[in-house]
Amino acid sequence: MSKITKLYTLEEASNHNTKQDCWLILDGKVYNVTKYLDDHPGGDDVLVNATGRDAIEDFDFVGHSKSARELMETYLMGELDPSSVPQQQQEKATTTRQHQTDQVTQKSTESSSAFKYWLAIAVISVIAGYLFFPSKDQ
């Protein structure tokens, strides 16, 4: 992973919002994706429209692959200076991340509960089979 050497303000990053000069903010990191616009599978408008804010929710929502995430590292320029982000946006980002973590935890719990439910049904079915359908050897 690249070393982050520079801090950029939200205003500075937001000024790069055209097809000729496009910077993205993802999870507090600043990327210059201008050279990638023509290659982006979703089109260049998607990236240009995501400028001026932390677009990590959009990035995650699409479900980018591991290789897409690795490719992003080649465009990494630095980090967003947290002091340049209005407090309201910082609180929203923190709340969103907590909500995403809660959703993952809930899905994991639901998955575990469903597994236990089906496992119990399987065990009961096997026991019932032995009780009600004894083997011919007996």
From TrEMBL:
It comes from the Eukaryota. Residues 84-107 have a biased composition (Polar residues). It is found in: Membrane. Residues 81-107 are annotated as: Disordered. Keywords: Heme, Iron, Membrane, Metal-binding, Transmembrane, Transmembrane helix. The keyword Ribonucleoprotein does not apply. One of its GO terms (molecular function) is heme binding. GO terms for cellular component: membrane. Belongs to the cytochrome b5 family. This is Cytochrome b5 heme-binding domain-containing protein.
